[in-house]
Amino acid sequence: MKKEIPLSVQAKFDRSFQTTGVKVISSTELYPALHLAGDAGLPLLVVENNLGRAVLALQGAHLMSFEPSGKREMLWVSPKSKLVAGVPIRGGIPLCLPWFGPSKDGSLQHGFGRIMPWSVVEDEACPDGSTRVVLELAGDASVCALWPHAFRFRLKVVVGSSLKLTLHAENQSATAAPFAFAFHTYFSVPDVAAALVSGLENTAYLDKMDNMARKAQQGDVTITAQTDRVYLDVPAVQTLKIATGNVEIESDAKCAVVWNCWTNDKNIGDIGEGNHTGYLCVERCDVAERAVTLAAGGGYRMSMTLSY
Ligand code: TA6
Does the global pTM surpass 0.70? Predict the structure, then answer.
């Protein structure tokens, strides 16, 4: 992969923001506990209005926080994550693209999109009080030898009383490109063992914990052990039911992944022993058997809305 552009708050921004409530600050300011002394920090885009507030790392166009006004934080960021350029952030909403899972050679998990610096290309205040920002990552075939295509990825983010995300990917090369995408959302939960996910009952899933065996979901999903499942052809809406208030997840993606590492957290350095209790990943995605091929010049679009 091409050497990363240095990604620090000193990085130049070719755009000044026109919209009140949109600014860039250093992650050392907002997340001091996720840094070691002397860290440069990552640039974070703060998008705030009367309806809500979101924070995105420009690295990966990665949502770190979403809080509708008067409501609790929706996303979990691991207390063990370290905010360092080129290292995936543990928590929030990583964008996994242009592939999901390990690369063919096993060297790069979940694609290069989540560890590269994206740019803000649009920001505007919308008439309904929400704020819209658009982030972009574009490059030629030399960016990643594992996926040698010219491309443009855009993430549209609308911050209001709900969070609406739209990912648009264009294959600008002359050859077809395999493509998979996930909003790998880590929801904050008071206790994962008490969480329920509805909206997946009677759907088929591939069980990564059982050699990708195909099974059928009975009733709500509950977490009682390490869980890693790809649900196929799911309904548009799932509800994460937790004591602090249900979360509605709506998307036109074909799949949903449910993941919690359970007590394997002790083997995952940036989660850490005991910390699995605080999150549940419910990811809307087009992955596994539902990954796509982008024709030469072709595109892909998928949206997800999160609300209480
Ligand atoms: O989405 C679930 C999953 O693919 C799991 O298999 C698990 O490995 C998780 O993602 C985390 O991946 P990461 O590369 O962020 O450690």
Answer: yes
